[in-house]
Design a protein that fits this description.
Membrane topology: Multi-pass membrane protein
Number of helices: 13
CATH architecture: Up-down Bundle
Largest sheet: 2 strands, antiparallel
Order of helices and strands: HHHHHHEEHHHHHHEEH
Radius of gyration: 22 Å
Shape: globular
Family: Belongs to the G-protein coupled receptor 1 family.
Number of strands: 4
Organism: Acipenser oxyrinchus oxyrinchus
Structural class: mainly alpha
Distance between the termini: 38 Å
Strand order of the largest sheet: 1-2
CATH superfamily: Rhodopsin 7-helix transmembrane proteins
GO cellular component, one term: plasma membrane
GO biological process, one term: chemotaxis
């Protein structure tokens, strides 16, 4: 996913080769776990659970992660071929564009989830009256539209290009001066760093600071519990993506200074950072399960029950399958309202 990489692969000996082999293993695990885990979440939240605002948010987040990991075989194959691209120009555009779109979609959704939680706590009465499933779907549509617009340059400028008689998936160099290409890459990297990391992070931190302040003011210590999964998902996203974004900035600096140490840092660090970013997309289903209350007992009963208990709105009694003929009190992700279950 590095936009500024040159077409040639630097030779750093067996250590770098081993690192790329390791990265392919990580990408493969992310593909297997991500498609399977997020596929299950999509099936459960999309077809098995009653629609609420919470399930709409996390259904869309699972779709973003599923699509992201579903495109990983192109990256795995390219790494195995020492970065040669064999899938043609259209797939090059599509692969890069989809990966960037789902990255933007994920972080925009996390920011929206945090804003939703903040409004539900700070303006509970307003949220009870106006927070509906239909509006959640509309918000998701707008967020996906914004993500697509932010990623449009990657659809436009990425292509299969030849360098030293080898084809790579990279930014087109013909019709652009080196200065213009360098300026474009710098702009795209900085925009992505700001809008896919810094600004969403500031929004999310501000939201949870307000939530924590309100909880302290009302002495609702127990209300922290429903936020655990949301906070864990947010923290996991930013921890996994931070090294990638930082190394992209380092790479920009390396292009300017041509510093050998910076290039070595990029060459060795980028496979690890990219693998960590990819692996983030298979972490959310694991978090949904492992952070659910009474995890071991519920997991022995049913994986479906575990996922349902992770997404159900607070204070809602969710009916189990007919064979069990019982109801249980579910802990929700957030301080949701019963309005979600009937609105829309």
């Amino acid at each position: 996913m590095s936009d500024n990489s040159t077409a040639s692969e630097p030779e750093h000996g067996s250590a770098l080769h081993g690192l790329h082999v390791l990265s392919m293993v990580v990408y493969s695990l992310a593909f297997l776990l991500g498609t399977a885990g997020n596929g299950l979440v999509i099936w459960i939240t999309g077809f098995k659970m009653k629609k609420t605002v919470n399930t709409v948010w996390f259904l869309n987040l699972a779709i973003a992660d599923f699509v992201f990991t579903a495109f990983l075989p192109f990256t795995i194959t390219t790494n195995a071929l020492r970065f040669r691209w064999v899938f043609g120009g259209f797939v090059c555009k599509l692969n890069t564009g989809v990966l960037v779109t789902t990255m933007y979609g994920s972080v925009f959704l996390l920011a929206a989830i945090s804003l939703d939680r903040c409004v539900s706590v700070v303006a509970a009465v307003w949220a009870h009256n106006f927070r509906t499933v239909r509006k959640a779907y509309l918000a998701c549509f707008l967020l996906w539209t914004a993500a697509l617009l932010m990623s449009s340059p990657y659809f436009a400028f990425r292509d299969a290009v030849e360098y030293h008689n080898v084809t790579y998936c990279a930014f087109r160099r013909h019709n652009y001066s080196p200065e213009a290409l360098s300026s474009t890459l710098k702009t795209l990297t900085l925009v992505r760093f700001l809008f896919a990391f810094v600004f969403p992070f500031l929004v999310i931190v501000s939201c949870y600071a307000l939530i924590a302040q309100r909880y302290r003011a009302t002495q609702r210590q127990r209300s922290y519990k429903p936020l655990r999964i949301v906070v864990a998902v947010v923290l996991t996203f930013f921890v996994c993506w931070l090294p990638f974004h930082l190394l992209q900035l380092v790479e920009l600096r390396a292009h300017v200074t041509d510093d050998s140490f910076l290039w070595m840092l990029v060459d060795f660090g980028m496979p690890i950072a990219t693998g960590l970013a990819f692996f983030n997309s298979c972490m959310n289903p694991i978090l949904y399960v492992c952070m659910c209350q009474d995890f071991r007992e519920k997991f022995r009963k049913s994986f479906l029950l575990v996922i349902e208990s992770a997404f159900v709105e607070e204070g809602t009694l969710y009916t189990l399958s007919a064979s069990r003929r019982s109801t249980v009190q579910m802990e929700s992700l957030v301080n949701g309202n019963k309005q979600d279950s009937t609105a829309g």
